[in-house]
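Narrative of accomplishments. A recurring question from our advisory board has been how the design workflow behaves on a single, concrete structure rather than in aggregate. To address it, we present the structure tokens for one chain from the evaluation set, followed by the sequence designed for it. No filtering or post-editing was applied between the two.
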């Protein structure tokens, strides 16, 4: 069975940092795209960032560019999202998602209907 185990959420003050982790299993990690969606209260779910394991290509939503960094550890089959300079508007439930095999165009992952697999969410709350 495919599993995407997200962790690392919590409460942080504006300007602070958090690191989310997504441990993946049940599919070929080295031939996949993995990343994060988020959903803030009362808002649509939106793509945040994705990484293609085959070549390390990354992509970010404009709202997080320069503040968030996505990375992967192939030995641990885990993807990380380092979130710095957090803002209250980053408050949301963050969902780990994956697609296997990885799409040729990584930006395709921003389409909610595209990722094959979704994990449970982890709540990030940024206080002002």
């Amino acid at each position: 069975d495919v599993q995407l185990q997200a962790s690392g959420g919590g409460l942080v003050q504006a300007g602070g940092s958090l690191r989310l982790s997504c441990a993946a299993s049940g599919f070929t990690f080295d031939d996949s795209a993995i990343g994060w969606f988020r959903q803030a209260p009362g808002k649509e779910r939106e793509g945040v960032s994705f990484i293609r394991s085959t070549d390390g290509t990354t992509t970010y939503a404009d709202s997080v560019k320069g503040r968030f960094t996505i990375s992967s550890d192939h030995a641990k089959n885990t993807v990380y999202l380092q979130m710095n300079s957090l803002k209250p508007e980053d408050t949301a439930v963050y969902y780990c998602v994956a697609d296997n095999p990885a799409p040729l165009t990584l930006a395709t992952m921003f389409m909610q209907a595209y990722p094959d697999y979704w994990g449970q969410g982890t709540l990030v709350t940024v206080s002002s």
